Amino acid sequence: MPAEELSYVIVTPYSMRKSRTGGIVARLISRTGLDLVTARMFAPSEELAKRYAETIVTETDPRYRATQELIRDYVLKNFMGTVNGQRARALFLVFRGPDAVEKIHYAIGHIVHERTSGETIRDTFGDYITDDSGKVTYFEPAALAAFDNQTVERDLKLWAEFSDRDGGILDQVIDFPKDAKIEKSLVLIKPDNFKFPNLRPGGVIEVFSRTGLYIVGFKVHCMSVAQAEEFYGPVLAVLEEKLGQAKGREAWESIVEFMAGMKPSECPPDQRKAPGSEKCIAIVYQGDDAVRKIRDVLGPTDPAKAPPGSIRKEFGQTIMINAAHASDSAENAKREMAIVQVNENNFKPLIESFYARS
Question: What is the rounded CA–CA span in Å between residue 327 and residue 337?
């Protein structure tokens, strides 16, 4: 069996501003079959952007070198500074699995003039436009990646080095109107979306993009039993009152098991705080009236009662297996973000540990 590799994709600041994140994530997960193991939002500093850019041009063949030079210049222009009151935000995704580098290469594709087949991410979301003389007049790669193991390792270690300083919850990168009711809301893309590689995680993000809110935090998270107990603690009393103590407790334990992979009553004490077996994605959205906008798009708890076009109508199955969770108040968003530790840097240790043993 081929050895597992790490590979990465950077969703460009332009793709983030144009809310193409969901489409790119959907394509990456469903087309590659790889495991999304960690992710982090970055507002790259000038130092990070320059150090990344200076490593890009390596080809001697003029055809490929010209593309690399375009990407280098693109990074220097677009990964720094401010556009329309926004500092550049980039989403860094890390995938793991056999032949990960080649699979990402195939999904991302090359930048090809006038290619419009939609086969790859760059066919669909990127642009390479030239004038009659062949001079490039517009270039947008949509997503960046490296296509050999040595370069992947070098780039991952570079971004890991800056992941504390330039990454995390980017709540100071967007200038909002002074009279706006700016809030942060937490979304969890639930474990039912990760049972096999599919379009659903990206599809959920795509629907949330209708809110016009900004993604300022992104974390791949495996909730521990202790975290799930605390997160869904307020639900226990509600279920016990509605269903009776025994049945309410049983229903609540099923929720914890769904999110963490084990019921509290069956979890050994020494495993309560260990990462669970189920994966979710925690996303922090920021913007005017964020909590209401997110919940409007999410829809009610019961997918059967959700309106057409809502996330739970599109992706939900039952009251528990209902695709996503969203905070119901700004205060609860703060509580929930603290429980799942959305600002925790699990990006750097994963990269360091992978290459330490390889």
Answer: 9
E strand spans, 127-178: 127-130, 136-140, 143-144
200, HSE (Cβ side, Cα atoms, 13 Å): 23
Question: Which pLDDT does position 84 carry in this prediction?
Answer: 82
Average pLDDT over residues 25-29: 97
Query: For the residues 270-299, what does the mean pLDDT come to?
Result: 97
Rounded CA-CA distance 355/349 in Å is 10
State yes or no: pLDDT of 115 exceeds 60: no
CB crowding 229-240: b at 16 or more within 10 Å, else e: bbbbeeebeebb
Distance, in Å, from the CA atom of 135 to the CA atom of 109, rounded to the nearest integer, reads 21
Catalytic annotation present for 325: yes
Closest CA to 283 of 223, 214, 352, 227: 214
Using one digit for the tens of pLDDT, what is the confidence trace for 195-245?
999 999 999 999 999 999 999 999 999 999 999 999 999 999 999 999 999
Q: Treating both helix axes as pointing N-terminal to C-terminal, what angle do 200-208 and 21-32 enclose, rounded to 10 degrees? A: 180
Distance CA 166, CA 43 (A): 6
Instruction: Name the 3-class secondary structure at 205.
Output: helix
Indicate the burial class of 25 (C-beta count within 10 angstroms; 0-12, 13-18, 19 or more): buried
Q: Which two tokens stand for residue 37?
A: 């193991």
- What residue spans of the chain are helical by DSSP H? 13-17, 21-32, 46-53, 62-78, 100-108, 121-125, 149-161, 200-208, 225-231, 233-243, 245-260, 290-298, 311-315, 330-340, 347-357
